[in-house]
Design brief:
69% of the residues lie in helices and 0% in strands. It is mainly α. The chain has two domains: 1-31, no CATH class; 35-118. The longest helix has 32 residues, at 36-67. The radius of gyration is 27 Å and the shape is elongated.
Amino acid sequence: MSSASASKAKSDRNYAIGIARSMQTGWYREVRVKRLDSHAIKALLVGHALLVKMRGEIENQIRGLVKNLGLVIGRAKRNTFTTRVQERIEDKPALQAVAEPNSRDAVEQQIAEWHTIRTAPW
């Protein structure tokens, strides 16, 4: 239980007294403050992970749409996903509007841009 929560009245004066007692008794621990560069790098990594997750979700949605019609895309790495989808739906014009992987390509382009940002000097 800290000395601040043990005080009867919550006021700036009582908080100051409690903090002073904590400092005297050693009930504190130093905390390292991260630099702004660290926060920026963390934001970039979290944003990149989010984009990669979105790409996977879009791929799975497209797979689910075409699977209902008997078309299987199978395992596709990197850039082969788009070509495989286009090969499967090229003779089905109704599917081209629904399963066209344009949104996936847009996310892929954003991921590529993030890679260039991440490799930029700080």
